[in-house]
Amino acid sequence: MARIGALEAGGTKMVLSVGTPEGEVLEREEIPTQGPQDCVDRMVEWFGSHNVDALGIGAFGPTGVNPSSSSYGKILETPKTAWRHFDFLSAFKPLGIPIGYDTDVNVACLGEVTYGSCKGLDTVVYLTVGTGIGAGVMVSGQLLHGMLHPEAGHILLEIQPGDEGNCVCPYHDRCFEGLAAGPSIEHRWGKKGFELADRPEVWDLESTYLAEGISTYVLCYSPQRIVLGGGVMKQTQLFPLVRKKVLENLNGYLVTPELADIDSYIVEAGCKGDQGVLGCIELGRRALEAARA
Ligand code: ADP
Ligand code: ZN
């Protein structure tokens, strides 16, 4: 039985796991994300000593995901300066095993398609609403790359009346992430999201921004289903609000069986927080299969 290594490389922590090709997680360890030199040697040693046959990496972006590009496997223009231009993928080459590499949100999307809420579908958007907002996109069975990869968390939205000046993105004055990720909620209301659970106005505004972003994804990617994950979506009262407002935004323009069953169209993650790890396992499994073909 093959042992597949999984590395979910996030801005705050690195989650290292070993799993089976069937998606059973056998071992797991978390280490804080420090500078690359501090944690990469440790991670290479961990996977080496855990006898993995292949590795799947889901990395924070922006990062090069196109194997034919010179930026493949490198961390690009990140605010985490120690990681800027770090050749992340190459650091794992001494393991001498097949490696699959993609963004953290693309692997979470893959996890949901393989093991979670989107089994059997081939065109799916996975949206995380946490410290940032990021969308992993699969189109016709392929995780979407391109020039770089989608950065759909930074699309521009219409500022709601009275909310001017509240966008916290250093690059944009009215982007989705800057208006609706966890830090933005905290900046606007002066408390963390989980402390605001009983303030309906917070979730009314939040759902308006979420629905505006999601309606745009519906129109641009035509997903068969949209999965919402990340810490902010623990406020599950958001789901019915978002579903209702997405339909209002579309205003009857699209008539499909999927939208007619909106509760099954905009859904919670089926992997219960493990979508990233499970997606990395699937990415590693695919790399192993390709190497053996
Ligand atoms: P990350 O995006 O860093 O991987 P999370 O998905 O856990 O991590 O997102 C963290 C963000 O989500 C923080 O801004 C936090 O305030 C917010 N958050 C976490 N739990 C909740 C909750 N129960 N309700 C609302 N917001 C939450
Ligand atoms: Zn932005």
Fold topology:
Layout: E1 4-9, E2 13-19, E3 25-32, H1 36-49, E4 54-59, H2 88-91, E5 99-103, H3 104-115, E6 124-129, E7 133-139, E8 142-143, H4 176-180, H5 182-189, H6 200-221, E9 225-229, H7 238-250, H8 257-260, H9 262-265, E10 266-268, H10 275-292
Parallel strand pairs: 1-4, 4-5, 6-9, 9-10
Antiparallel strand pairs: 1-2, 2-3, 6-7, 7-8
Bound molecules: adenosine-5'-diphosphate (ADP) and zinc ion.
Zinc ion binds next to helix 4.
GO molecular function, one term: metal ion binding
Pfam families: ROK
EC number: 2.7.1.4
What does this protein look like?
It is a single chain. The protein is α/β, with parallel strands linked by helices and 293 residues long. It folds into two domains: 4-103, Nucleotidyltransferase, domain 5 (2-Layer Sandwich); 117-268, 2-Layer Sandwich (Nucleotidyltransferase, domain 5), CATH 3.30.420. It has ten helices and ten strands. The strands form two sheets. A five-stranded mixed β-sheet has the order 3-2-1-4-5. It has a five-stranded mixed β-sheet with strand order 8-7-6-9-10, with helices on both faces. Helix 3 packs across helix 10. The longest helix has 22 residues, at 200-221. The protein is globular. The model has no long low-confidence stretch (mean pLDDT 97). Bound molecules: adenosine-5'-diphosphate and zinc ion. It holds the Pfam family ROK. This is fructokinase.
